[in-house]
Design a protein that fits this description.
Two copies of one chain form a homodimer.
Chain A: E1 3-6, E2 13-16, H1 24-28, E3 54-56, E4 70-74, E5 88-91, E6 94-98, E7 102-107, H2 121-139, E8 146-153, E9 165-171, H3 176-192, H4 196-207, E10 211-214, E11 218-221, E12 232-236, H5 249-270, E13 275-280, E14 295-300, H6 309-312, E15 315-317, H7 321-330
Antiparallel strand pairs in A: 1-2, 1-6, 3-4, 4-7, 5-6, 7-9, 8-9, 8-13, 10-11, 11-12, 12-14, 13-14
Helix pairs in contact in A: 2-5
Chain lengths: 333, 333
């Protein structure tokens, strides 16, 4: 069983994947090249994944067979386990709990080589609908305090399979970074009676120098204090606390439009970079959603710049967000 | 002039290096191979660095000439600038200050290929003495609130030059991660009247499963909630708030002994991994040093495991610290 352990100094929780137990050789040797035709996420190989928990199948209703356009399956090598009660325990001055949670893989397309930039917008929209459906389902499980949706694109960004996919992790705690954002935006709300993200959007629309693109519903900006070169946030223009309570499905269409445009711009400007994106949304245990505003943070992994930042939480960004904005805005697609 | 900008939601400061202004091509193209014999950190090339601010020269007292055994020079491409008053300014709802600070390079050895594992222990000791001298000097400048000492070893860990070196950054703010540690250890101290690091050391010496090695003065442990596989902390066994107030120089000898042993163990177990280390010490503005305990955090950069963690502050560690300890403890050197 994996464990969640708390750093006693900073109260940061870490998942220790005891079952995976990666030995040193894992970090030293190159992984074997993937076998052609043996992608476990491709149609026809449904038996290579755990049974699906959600799928979009326009024609056939039979689960775990081909002819799907999107599938969600439990991760075969989960960081957390769905079974069991949540047990919290001390270990001397330390605190831990057993690694109860869910870890799912969203297979975004049946096509092995598809990406968010080659898929049609309705297909991208489907992916967001799948996120929502899985979040709403997992939220019913009272053991889970936060559902994190993220995507690793490219092996440098942590993807272990080529076939385009994203991941959901349901956690028995709210991660520290999310708590900090909630705390910060709550403090602002108490002081100003306004959502800080709404105020940021208003200022960015005035300033213009960090706004890359917008449509009716969404805006993409380079954040003022960007940690990483070409970091981009995509936010709904109107106040929306929860990603998953977006009930007008056309808003996911608008989101897909903006996100795929940003990724196309990355491809042109940064030559197909690996990237991560993470959905930040109000934890469902928060009393109300007045002060937090869901958004997606996209980080291209331009690793040459990585440094001591990872260990200290302190970042040096060599590309001002205003310059990154200009490059992304002006590139022709 | 570089800028320090604050993320308005989480209060995290970021250095935006406006002068460097790295264009997209920088992230795409491979850097040109270094020119042989043209290392700016090698003896004979003293004119290729800014004039030295500290040096150890057993024979010749003349600065910026060869025959040194260690040199400290300002970084030629500093993230922060030493000149000017500290100006704090608003920009709508955002906050910034000009990038006043110091950024220095410690050239640890005249030998181009030397590393902490090939240098003699007295030479490693010299490096720590140099850190102390530079910290004590920079601390006199009242504009600086925190001096951060760190080392990037290997290009994956962010080193842009092969010649073994470390860096000092003097900052006009205390970085968020350091503040969090101070806050956490202060809360523990108020509750228990004891230093949390002293308690951790006591528990680890009892438990044994995460203690890798110790000598008279220092102990090396795998932290209970390790964020990264094979992360190691080196701590003085007795309570010591400040790295730089270590007035018995033989304690730096003992530190060098432990640190170079850990790095030798990394070389054997992890096949010469790139790594970062960071010295964590009490900010000199803290009222007293009862509650914080300086230490060095070492992170081997086994990048295949990097993932969404960087963006969220949430870590999944695939190697339990107890297993990492066993590998590091048992390897014969």
């Amino acid at each position: 069983m994996p464990e969640l352990r708390k750093d006693p100094i900073t109260d940061r929780w870490v998942i220790i994947s005891t079952e995976r137990g990666k030995r040193p050789v894992f970090f030293i040797e190159e992984p074997p090249p993937p076998k052609v035709g043996m992608c476990p996420l491709c149609p026809g190989n449904e038996n290579m994944t755990p049974p699906e928990v959600y799928a979009i199948r326009p024609d056939s209703p039979k689960p775990n067979t081909p002819n799907w356009s999107l599938r969600v399956v439990p991760n075969k090598f989960p960081a957390l386990r769905i079974e069991g009660e949540l047990n919290k325990e001390g270990e001397g001055l330390y605190d831990k709990m057993n690694g109860v949670g869910a870890h799912e893989v969203v297979i975004e397309s049946p096509s092995h080589g598809a990406t968010f930039t080659t898929m049609t917008l309705p297909d991208v929209q489907q992916v967001f609908i799948a996120y929502r459906e899985r979040i709403l389902d997992l939220t019913k499980d009272t053991r889970f305090k936060y559902i994190m949706v993220f995507k690793n694109h490219g092996s440098i960004a942590g993807a272990s399979l080529d076939h385009s996919h994203s991941q959901l992790i349901a956690l028995p705690i709210v991660p520290k970074r999310v708590l900090e954002e909630i705390k910060g935006s709550f403090a602002y709300y108490r002081y100003k009676d306004r959502c800080i993200f709404c105020d940021i959007i208003a200022q960015e629309r005035d300033d213009k120098v960090r706004t890359i693109i917008e449509n009716d519903l969404f805006i993409a900006i380079s954040p003022y204090a960007s940690r990483f070169p070409f970091e981009v946030w995509v936010l709904p223009k109107n106040h929306e606390p929860y990603f998953e309570k977006h009930d007008r499905e056309d808003s996911y269409f608008g989101l897909g439009e903006i996100l795929s445009l940003i990724l196309k711009k990355y491809e042109k400007v940064l030559n197909y970079p690996p990237y991560n994106f993470i959905i930040h949304s109000t934890p469902h245990g928060e009393k109300d959603g007045e002060y937090y505003h869901w958004h997606i943070e996209i980080i291209p992994r331009l690793t040459k710049m990585a440094g001591f930042e990872w260990g200290t939480g302190f970042f040096i960004n060599p590309t001002p967000p205003e310059e990154a904005t200009a490059y992304l805005k002006e590139v022709s697609l």
